[in-house]
Specification:
Elements: H1 2-21, H2 49-55, E1 62-68, E2 72-74, E3 77-79, E4 82-91, E5 94-101, E6 104-114, E7 123-129, E8 132-140, E9 145-149, E10 159-164
Antiparallel strand pairs: 1-4, 2-3, 4-5, 5-6, 6-9, 7-8, 7-10, 8-9
Amino acid sequence: MKITTAVKASMFTAALGLACLLPVTAHAQADVSPDFYPIANTETIAPQPAQVASAKPAKSDFEGKFSLPYDVKCSGKNLKSGQYLLSVKSEAKGRVVTIHRSGEEVSVRVREVPRNRAGSQSALLVRKSDEGRRLEAVYVEGLNAMLYLETDTMGSHGRMERLPIS
């Protein structure tokens, strides 16, 4: 009985080894690089007006230059003292202020508050406190609006300084 069991086991092992050596058949699901894909809906889709508008570069509502005599924090970034360019652009969800200097750019979404009366010259409003100076808002004379940066100003104390924009 032991001999028949040994013969059966060796035959099973040989058959299993032979089955492993045979090639595996594969059935492809799709071409690797087909030239044509059938489309169920052949209707052309016209571009939406918002997509066409976003393809064009946005025109600035306001552009100006200003000089920082000291370092200022703006949206978590440090702006070193020196000359800067400022632009205000309208977007779908409001206005964006962009501050640019020698390849570095800071863009901040702002909250616009229209002014009832015409103010003085366009200016940056910088708050000086114990933690340093921080850019709080931008007043734009041509738009007659105060643009507050989206920062937490709760509990902010300190003197406000105006830096002119030309």
